[in-house]
Amino acid sequence: MFEEPYRWTEAVGNRRAYVDAQFAQGSPVVAVSYRGGILFVTVQRGIPKLYEIYDRIALGGMGHPADLETLRATALDMAHVEGFSRSPSDVTVMRLVKYALAPVVKRAYEEIFRAPLVAKVLLAQVGQQGSQDVFVTLDYDGVFDQSSGRAVLGATPAVADAMLKRLDRTGSMADAPLDVALPTALRAWAVGDLAQREDHEPDAPTDDAVEAHLKTICAERGLEVALLDREAAGVSKYRPLKPAEIAEVLVPWLGPDAAAR
Q1: Residues 162-182 pLDDT 10s
Q2: In the 8-state DSSP scheme, what is residue 98?
Q3: Which of 18, 32, 75, 147 is the most exposed place for a label (fewest CB within 10 A)?
Q4: In the CATH scheme, what is the homologous superfamily, with its name and number, of domain 28-258?
Q5: pTM (predicted TM-score)
């Protein structure tokens, strides 16, 4: 009887090691405030990783596609129920995380006789001004964190920390145009992607390594970029960028051969 709490602790620790390993091959996600709203950036191979949740709210995720879909559907359901039964202004990122997503994720993680959700998500809500933008990250164990200005998802806390340091080195993007914010976000993404690879240390890679990695990635895989456009007409502020729009921003920086497909 006295061994049960220790067995539970050991089982949860084993789950953490298992889930951490699943994210090593995933693609990081970066979100930053810029002059026009909020920018989301990631890389994907056919399966979208960025989604609209509600008028001013978007979600980016990494992990198993089925588990990400579970969390996306949960957030969508609560957002639309709240918007209908209360008002659209009552639908906020923090309400979605506190009352819909975090309890589901925490319960799945701690119930050792069911599979945990192999997913972590980043939600952002665009405000009327950049200072009102809200970012929240939710880890696979149900722990969430709110920030302003930027947020990232990485395979481990060390990877996420390296990405944040890269963004902090550049400074706030709040007044930057898209053609400055997108390359900055992509460099932070590259730092995270390199840090997750077995042949790299979690320390921040050199600038040359980041640029070389981005040229390779942009030529071989599809960039996924979405905006929460602060100035967009209508209530919905979410807009995914088309490949041609991404290429228009990246060609002057990476060259025509590295344009998004």
Answers
A1: 999 999 998 889 899 999 999
A2: I
A3: 18
A4: Aminohydrolase, N-terminal nucleophile (Ntn) domain (3.60.20.10)
A5: 0.90
